[in-house]
Structure formats: structure tokens, C-alpha cells
Amino acid sequence: MMKTTRRSVFRLFACLAGLAPLIASAELRLPPVFADDMVLQRDRANPIWGWDKPGAKVVVSIDAHSVTATAQANGRWQVQLPRLPARSEPLEIRIRSSAGSERFVRNVLVGEVWLFIGPSNIYWPVQRSNNADQEISSADYPQIRFFTVAKGLADKPQPECKGTWAVCSPKTVGPMSGIAYFFSRRIHQETKVPIGVLQSYWGGSRVEAWTSLPALQSESELRPILGSWDGLLAKKYDPATAAAKHAAELRTWRQNAATAKSAGRDAPRRPRKPADPAKSKDRPAALFNAMVAPLVPYGIRGIATYQGLGNLYWAEYSVPLLRAMTRDWRSLWQQERLPIGMVQPAPFPCGNWPKLRADAYSLQREAQLLIHDELSHIGIAATTDIGDLEELHFTNKQEVGRRLAQWALAEVYGQPKAYSLPRFRALKTEGNRIRIHLHDTGGQLMTIDGKAPTHFQIAGKNGRFKTASAIIDGETIVLSHPEVPGPTHARFGWSETAIPNLVNALGQPVSLFRTDDLRPD
User: Fold this and answer.
1) Which of 86, 10, 103, 18 is closest to 46 using CA atoms?
2) Greatest CA separation for the chain
3) Spatial separation of the C-alpha atoms in residues 490 and 455, rounded to whole Å
4) pLDDT tens digits for 470-493?
5) pTM of the complete model
6) Does the CA dihedral 82-36-196-383 come out positive or negative?
7) What is the rounded distance in angstroms from the CA atom of residue 281 to the CA atom of residue 264?
8) How far is Cα of residue 375 from the mean position of the Cα atoms in its chain?
9) Could you tell me if 109 and 193 are in contact, meaning their C-beta atoms sit under 8 angstroms apart?
10) Is the preceding peptide bond at 297 cis, omega within 30 degrees of 0?
């Protein structure tokens, strides 16, 4: 891939932001995200930008405030609106050009703006969530607004994207993201201010696709991923050859599936249809360029995201991937402490998904915890207890949205703490036992069924793990096994399908962990 620096990307943004609109039109124009029913971020200077004739003076007015900019040689202009407090009463933005054009943006509210990004589980709609009919009929929240970014792919950062704003109502909420709606509803109810949600989703998408190329290149650990794509893109894609290869793979798959069925085993994963790598949604930065870059630097409070199964193959690289993505977004929005909430994927059998090691799904979920401890202002919404082993797209999006909202209310809005993330803190060996200390117990540990804690394993120096007997002792867990006389390692929930019963005082599930770095057998 072409070597690119972060500085060159900013220059590229500026160039692209003006070039296409200048060719298409010489009159005053705004990107679609600045339109009727939009929401501005309160208590911050909000950037407003667009295009006009080069040299034209553009005046943007709102609520008795006016700011002026001059369209550059490429036609792009940008102003910073003054800080505004939350406003539930509609405002109007007026944009006037010295070239004679005028534009109005009406029914504008001022409140909290969040960007939701990710694959299918984060955009799973309200109409397919639990109690859909009741949720839809009661969704009369005109102060909640959604801007949905149209799907798109690009090789370079784009100046704008297609999309529309919608006022939340029973008529509009059905196809909106369930997690985003239930999150924004809770934030709105608690803060009493308008909420704007920017939605940018693509099913099966990967972390690297939502991250800029310079950010990915800045992480040396990601060279294998980028190098793999360099190799794929360097090869000339021949549809006929690809189709013939796929047909042969299908014949082999049918034979293997029949054999598995007769033996009472699950069939192997069906080979995917061939696709041109140059048109893949998975290639690095492809979704970022088309569906994130056009939103920069729209005023936002924070971002919520979800890592899907598309990243299983490169699970060992999950930490640098998440690090690159997080730092990238914070840099682009020029907010070093930009809050980013992550949904920790729920248990699910991933046996037929391509991966390089058997514990890939656990590694992927563990990476979020490592990033949480490495970087500040990261929230994790664990879903160990609310998923569905029979359905990847589990329907209880209400609880996911609520847990994300609890994090935001506690850590972003400073409300009384109702969020916690019980997770591993320390291990202490006590003879033939291991004692586990956790963060965020809330002063108490318990099980949801009143039975002994499940899904703990311990091992000695030989690395052979045995299912451990677990006992709650105050705010700690004591582990033992008669065949492990000198335990040195512990694991909890370290499998694709484990649904542990251990929770803290707030009823939050304890997150999976391991104290070793041994590869599975």
C-alpha cells in the first residue's frame, strides 16, 4: 500500500473536500449532514462547512450569532459556531454568500451527539429487537434525531456522504439501530436534552475498514494485515478463474458436509462466493474513507462501536487494531479524551468461522479489556449474560443500549455511578489454591443462580488446564483442583460459548480473563 502520513491525509481531506463540489456546482452548498432536523453538540464550538465560489464571503448565523469565512481556491469554507447551551426549542441556521446564494437549515436542536459505528449487531434495528411493536408504538421522542449514513466504499477519504436526518417517532424508529435508540432514549431521559445520533454501519465489517490508512500504518504490529492486503490487491482478479475455483470448493464442501451429517457432526462452513478484493468492504480504510471521513469534524460527544466476527481471523492483532482505531478517531476529532464505548461481543459458537487459533473469539474480547486499561475514557458493555447461542444477532438490544448508557451517564456525564466493569485485577497463589482479585466488585460477588461460580479453569506450569472448583470468599474467588497441586495460571469464561454465572453487586457479569499467554492445544 502507498505510504501515507497523517499530515498528508489532512491535506487530502482539504483537497477532496473542495474538488468534487467545485466541479459539480459553483453555488453555495452544504454536505447532507447539515440539514433540517439536525442536532448540534452543546457547550462546544461546532464546525459548519460547505462549498461556494472561490473567494466568496460566507456568513453563518444562528441565535443572534454570526461568523464569517472565505471560500478557498477549491471552493471549501468552514466556520466555527460559538458554544451554545442545550436548546429544545428549534433554531434556524442561515448561510449567506456574497456570491448571492442563501441557504437555511431549520428545526435545529442543541444537545448531545453520538456516533455509532460497526457491523450488523450494532445496527440491528428496533423493529427486530425484543418487544418491537411496543417499543415502536411508544417511540414518541421528537428531541431524538438520527442521521443515517448511506453505505459506501472508497479508496481515499471522501468530502461528503449521502444520508438523511429523521426525527424519532413511531413512524421512523423501526429501521433505526436498536442499540443506538435505546442508548439515546436513556441519555435523553436522564439529561433532559436533545440527542443526535450519527449512524454508520455495515454488516460483517472489520475494525481495519473503519480506521484510516495512516493510523493503521502507524502500528508496526499491523504490518501482516496490511501486507496481506497488498498481496491480494496486487493480483489481477479474474472472475472466470475465481468462479471455477469456487465451484471446485463447493463440490468438496458438499462431500464433506454429507460426511459430517452422516457422522452426526456440524457441517463445515460453506465457501463464500468469490469477490474482487479491490471492491471488498473489508479492505483497510474502505469504510472509513466513505462513511467516517465525511463526518469529520462534525461536533460529537463520543462514539460507540461493536467489534464483529469479521475480525476473528486476525484476532491476535485485536489490541493494535483497536488501539489504532481509537487513536485515529481521537486525532481526527481533535479530542484526546473522546469517550469511546465498546460492546463486548456475546458468547457464540464460531467453529465454522475462519481463524488462525482456536481461542480467537476470546482473544478478540480480551483485547477490549486490555485497551480499556491502556487508554483512558474507554467504556465496555459486557454481554456475556444476554446473548443467544443459537442466534448471532440476539434481540435483547435494550440491555446493550442500557449498559452503554450507564457507562456514559457515569463516566461522561458525571451522574451517580451506576456503571461498573468487574474484571481481573490480580492472582495470588496460596499453596494448592489460587485466589482471584477483581476490579469493580461493588463490595460483593454473587452468582445469578445461587450456585457455585462456573467456567473457571486452573493449570500448573505444564499448562494443562482443569475445570476448577470455585468458592466466593468476600470480594475474591478461591480456585482449586485435586489434580493441580501447584496452580500457577487461571482462566475464566475462556471459550466461545461460556455463559458464566458470576456477577458483582450491581448484577454486572464478570468479564472473561486469563492470567497466561499459552496457546490452546
Assistant:
1) 86
2) 85
3) 11
4) 999 999 999 999 999 999 999 999
5) 0.91
6) negative
7) 36
8) 16
9) no
10) yes
Q: Pick the range with the lowest mean pLDDT from 12-16, 98-102, 414-418.
A: 12-16
- Mean model confidence pLDDT for the chain: 92
Type of residue found at 131: N
Neighbours of 234 (CB within 10 A): 9
pLDDT at 390 over 60: yes
Which amino acid is residue 228, in one-letter code? Answer: S
d(CA 412, CA 423): 21
* Higher pLDDT, residue 47 or 6: 47
Amino acid at 94: R
Cell 481556491 locates to 73
- CB-count burial class (<10 Å; 0-12, 13-18, 19+) for 184: buried
What cell does 21 get?
A: 463540489
The beta strand positions in 413-455, using DSSP E, are 423-430, 433-439, 445-447
Cα angle 135, 136, 137 (rounded to 5 degrees) comes to: 95
User: What's the DSSP call for residue 452?
Assistant: -
Q: Which three cell numbers stand for residue 136?
A: 415502536
Question: How many residues appear in the chain?
Answer: 521
Region 355-374: mean pLDDT is: 95
Beta-strand pair 469-473/476-480: antiparallel
Q: Read off the pLDDT of residues 425-458 as tens digits, 9 standing for 90 and up.
A: 999 999 999 999 999 999 999 999 999 999 999 9
Query: Of 279, 286, 270, whose CA–CA distance to 232 is shortest?
Result: 279
Residue 435's DSSP bridge partners are 428, 478
pLDDT tens profile 313-360: 999 999 999 999 999 999 999 999 999 999 999 999 998 888 999 999
Return the bridge partners of 112, or none: 195
What gap in Å lies between CA 162 and CA 148, rounded to an integer?
Answer: 9
Q: Reply yes or no on whether the pLDDT at 520 is more than 80.
A: no
Long-range contacts of 515-519 (CB under 8 A, 24+ apart): 515/424, 515/427, 515/489, 515/490, 515/491, 516/459, 516/463, 516/489, 516/491, 518/459, 518/463, 518/489, 519/357, 519/359
Among 424, 443, 427, 445, which residue's Cα sits nearest to residue 435? 427
Instruction: List % helix, strand, coil for the chain (3-state, nearest 5).
Output: 30, 25, 45
290: cell is 466513505
Coil vs helix vs strand at 105: strand
The set of cell numbers assigned to 408 is 456514559
